Fold:
Amino acid sequence: MFRPMRRFKQAFSEEECRKVLQEEKRGTLALAGDDGYPYAVPLNYYYDPETGHLYFHGAGEGHKIDALKRCEKACFNVHDTGVKLDGDWAYTVRSVTIFGRLRILEDKEKALQLLRKIGLKYYPTVESVDEVMARSASRVTMLELVPEHMTGKRVHEK
Structure:
């Protein structure tokens, strides 16, 4: 069902994919948008290493939610900033691409726990997470991406 990676020599292991997902801060979620146009949006996320699922937060309405209601299939891509090896002008970049099914997380208690984990990943203090959650958590919709296929690759840009 999913295509094999064409540049298979650049592929890396599932373990390294998980490492990239845990280390990086942002990725791009792609959905089937309006009138057949793709819709891709950069998002903060939380990767749960126990389940392998990814979680996103946002409003309960808008382009992303409309696209999800039309089709639950999604693609999420994360890449690092790359590194330059000594004496090299080109970067080596790692990226991970996940295909899966996206859904609205209906369990409110679980949604709040995961929203807190996202907050702790990005905010400087626990107090700042508590403050933001007290102010806005009731308006947040949590989304869960359940992976069906994942690939990772390392590319030297020259």
User: Anything to note?
Assistant: The first strand starts at residue 26 and ends at 32. The chain has a mean pLDDT of 93. Residues 108-122 form the longest helix (15 residues).
